[in-house]
Specification:
Length: 307
């Protein structure tokens, strides 16, 4: 089976590496163009490109894959199936119809739940107990194609985006290796998604990290975990941005955003319902630190307001 792979971030790189390690023939890899990064502005490879280059696989980096010239380049690489994981561009019907076994997508949720760009963050924000990987036959819709294979996992109570991302990245590779032989043999019956059960996980934006202390402590605890490491849950202290990296739900009442207790290792802030104990943070312009270290050089007293 010849495979053409499309993907860009670390999540996709995990699937590509699994295919390479399993000995599949990858005819080409398609990924987003190199992007400038850091103060130097030097262009850097996507994680998928790094894996492909290390394995000696041809790499295509179209600015817009729907352009006829870019599509023509793609079709120069024969493949029985296209495997797509977090590629970041919409595919034309011409591309979707090209491979003999179609185009399949590795999606980081149990479809039809959490269609869209940010399913990992959204399941944490919504307090879901279970998520997983769906291998889907792609169509022209947004994550609406027939389901071919699913593999699930349970979320840990303290799950962060970072930990769940890595678990799903590994699970995606496992699901792909289990599904591909079945697809090749025609032993999978595609199942149409029930649109009535679907919901949407829109792209996370930087401003989504802003803490609204009127929310419950459980909601804000989920926000801190879902946005770790990006964009980070943040509030303001004396006019400056304060990112909250580690927190725990706590007992207590007060005006939302008000510090209601302080000890040597933490301080607790009242929420709309309950309170949030802050155990690690990052003041504006400084590095991450535990709250104990922060309190050594900063005076926090009950009654101070955040927000």
């Amino acid at each position: 089976m010849k495979i053409l792979f499309m993907g860009t971030p670390d999540f996709a790189a995990g699937s590509l590496k699994s295919l390479i390690d399993a000995g599949y023939e990858i005819t080409a890899v398609v990924t987003q163009p190199d992007r400038p990064k850091g103060r130097s502005g030097q262009p850097v490879f996507s994680p998928v490109k790094e894996v492909a280059v290390a394995a000696g696989i041809p790499v295509l980096q179209p600015v817009r894959i729907k352009n006829p010239e870019e599509t023509a380049k793609l079709l120069e690489y024969p493949a029985d199936i296209y495997v797509i994981a977090a590629f970041g561009q919409i595919l034309s019907k011409e591309i979707l119809d090209q491979p003999r076994l179609g185009c399949i997508n590795v999606h980081a949720s149990l479809l039809p739940r959490y269609r869209g760009a940010s399913p990992i963050q959204r399941v944490i924000l919504d307090g879901e107990k279970e998520t997983g990987i769906t291998i889907m036959q792609m169509n022209e819709g947004l994550d609406t194609g027939d389901i071919l294979y699913k593999k699930s996992l349970e979320l840990a109570p303290d799950e962060t985006f970072e930990t769940l991302h890595d678990r799903l990245m590994n699970l995606g590779g496992e699901a792909l290796l289990e599904a591909l032989p079945l697809i090749e043999k025609g032993e999978i019956t595609p199942v149409a998604q029930d649109d009535s059960l679907s919901n949407y996980a829109p792209l996370i934006k930087k401003e989504d990290g802003k803490i609204d202390w009127r929310k419950s402590s459980s909601q804000l605890y989920a926000q801190v975990r879902a946005f770790n490491p990006w964009p980070g849950a943040f509030t303001r202290l004396e006019g400056k941005v304060l990112k909250i990296w580690g927190a725990e739900p706590a007992e207590g009442k007060g005006n939302p955003g008000e510090v209601i207790s302080v000890d040597k290792k933490s301080f607790t802030v009242a929420c709309g319902d309950g309170a949030l104990k802050i155990v690690s943070l990052q003041p504006e312009g400084k590095k991450k630190m535990d709250t104990a270290s922060f309190l050594l050089g900063n005076k926090i007293e009950s009654g101070i307001r955040l927000g």
